[in-house]
Write a structure and sequence with these properties.
alpha/beta; five-stranded parallel beta sheet; 10 helices; about 10% strand; globular
Amino acid sequence: MEDQYRIAREEAFMEALAPQHDVEPTLPPSVVASERQDFIGYLLNGDVEAACRLLDRVANSGVGEERLLTEMVAWSARSLGQGWEDDTIAFADVTIALCGLSRVLRKRDWGVEKAPGPAANAPSILLTTFAGEQHGFGVTFLEIFFQRAGWATCSMPCADSADVKAALARYRYDVLALSASVDIAADRLSNQIKVLRHASQNPGMRVLVGGPAIQDALPHGADGTADDAQSAVAEAARLHRTSKDCRTNG
């Protein structure tokens, strides 16, 4: 049951990460529904190499890396979770496919190597989960978007709270991004944000929260919220600008 609950939380988190659409994403002519189904098929069969080769072919046809991430990778994660909820995909198969999807994220560079990389004065962000959460795939997914945007990143998926506090004390991060795949009690949410702020070397560090907990985040200590990867990058940039403005005006 614990593993099944973890899969459900993973699917819920990826639902929050992906851009919200009332209809299926509009795909360029070079990407067809059958290719996305083939991609999931490779993942279900544990064939990560074939899944990566398919992504390469789609990318070579002119589809950008960001669209691959949102319309292939995130779409697949949501579809796998939905298949498990609908009882059309076995729990064991979903587990295999999600593990494969994590490997796909790690094996490709997603255009990060072609990006200029963080400048000396680039904003920095630490991305992690709330204590006790286990949706590391989503944190890795988010980190790619921040790297592509030129941020200096540190990803600590599923890290122990003590390790996160030590990292915040060791390095001056501009933004802390916390992801929550399930609703978090208001007192727990407020307490963890307060504890991590206190541990930070940067007294002006901004806190960004994503996932189902975002509705309660602002009244309980967060500076901003985001409901998908693109909006997370935009909101983190806004928070960083306001932090710099406060230091300048102060």
